[in-house]
Write a structure and sequence with these properties.
With about 100 residues, this protein is mainly α. The chain has one domain. Strands 1-2 form a two-stranded antiparallel sheet. The longest helix has 16 residues.
Amino acid sequence: MDNTDAVHIWHRAGNPTPDDRLSLYAQALISECSIGAYRTLNDAQEDKAILALFRVDQPRATLASLHQVPPLALSGYHQLLHELAREGFGPGSGFHAERRMGHV
């Protein structure tokens, strides 16, 4: 899946975010992990996917700083993942950092 596909899915789901912004979110997610067929993520994988999206808006964010953000402030990022999941897609065909470290 490429970023154009993700943008189309998000628009079909009714996401009102402009295409250029959605494209940035898709690129960020794709750069952190492949997007493919949906599979359940563990907590660490979900955190990494949310962090990839969050860094579009907060480029210096870390996992530690992400955990300090109120859940409501992260709901839009969770929604992006849920919209992909409703169409049968999501992060999880491999997180790039885990591959480099030998974990999948």
